[in-house]
Amino acid sequence: MATKIKNTCCRTSRCLDEKSRNQFTRRDGTMDDLGKHACCLGEDSLMEAKELLFNSLPKLTEQIRHRAAVADEKLSRFRPSSVFRNFLKPRKVNLFSGCPANTQCSFILSCWWTRDSVGTSCGPFFFCCGSQDSRDDHHINQLYYGPVRNDPMCGRSSTSTSRIVGGEDAAFGQFPWLAFIQVGGSRCGGALVAWRHVVTAGHCVAKTQHNPGNIKVTLGDYILNSDLEGIPSETFGVDEVKVHPKFRFTPQADRFDVAVLLLDRPVEYKFNMRPICLPEKGTDFLGSIGYAAGWGALEPGSKLRPKILQFVPVPIINNQMCEGWHRRRGINIVIFDEMVCAGYEYGGRDSCQGDSGGPLMINYFGIWYLVGIVSAGYSCAKQFQPGIYHRVSSTSDWISTNLY
């Protein structure tokens, strides 16, 4: 697509319209290439700017290759070079080795992300970080697999965020990492997290670990069973299923309810297919507004499913409050550290049946992070019964070890 530059904002990196400036400015105040092109095209041509970026910017491709030390002939087939992969090969270390009480040995960026106090060094790029929550001092999973690695293109929505129960239609390309997973006659959600990997709930695929051929993953879908989208969806097979080693079915919410699917071929990144970012290990999103998305039921108990992708905002609450709310309904449940709850005290909005395995996401300075995986819930959108999710920051390091 050929586009004539209308003004000099690309050269000056100054955005002339507020909508583009707010959407594409980095944390340090500079603007990324997508923002520059949006400026040049004008406020009414943001979609054209995005298409221009992802279809005709070889210079940006070369920059990303250089920064990430990757060797691949296409950005859409991005994967780390063997040197880069070996340098960052995860290794298990004891979080509490050599660190004072109430601190843990963490990657320096993890300390920065969680805004914990940074203490003495406990290894190259690792420091003893202060914990803000005493309940977090006794995590079940004390083995650390190394720093979380993310794809350079992760977390970038193709549209601005402007029904799942109480929700509304998403825009095409708004959540380009959304996966629609079919396991035999059942359906689940998922999220693309790397060039060939999708994360979903462990309970969705635990029984098919030794028969991954029964799983089909569709990416880039918006209107199910329709070809009305401008860019078609793609369906992938699955070569391998890795369920978390501590996953366990329980009468309540399943423990460590997370799995990684290895697709049968690489994903070609495009407008409606891109990965979401993983959070650093131990990150707490308490009080943030999360977004659940999927093609689940629009009404509690309904067998009807929407054709168009739905999303709903839900506040993330602490585990003690979640347990207390359930007790008010006569439900005695334990919300373990690897779980997180999101929802409203008086219901009305929630993820529903059919959304299992789907993502709970937050937008942090314009970048989307996967913070939860739909795991369980007693009924749907009911008073004092928030949704229960797997807490991705409790296993993001394990997920990362299975991506490269």
TrEMBL record:
Entry GO MF terms: serine-type endopeptidase activity
PROSITE patterns linked: TRYPSIN_DOM (PS50240), TRYPSIN_HIS (PS00134), TRYPSIN_SER (PS00135)
Domain Peptidase S1, residue spans: 164-404
Cited Pfam families: Trypsin
Tagged with keyword Transmembrane helix: no
BP GO annotations: proteolysis
UniProt keywords, alphabetically: Disulfide bond, Hydrolase, Protease, Serine protease
Domain of life: Eukaryota
Transmembrane annotation, as ranges: none
Record's signal peptide: none
UniProt key word Hydrolase: yes
Protein name: Serine proteinase stubble like protein
Annotated organism of origin: Argiope bruennichi (Wasp spider)
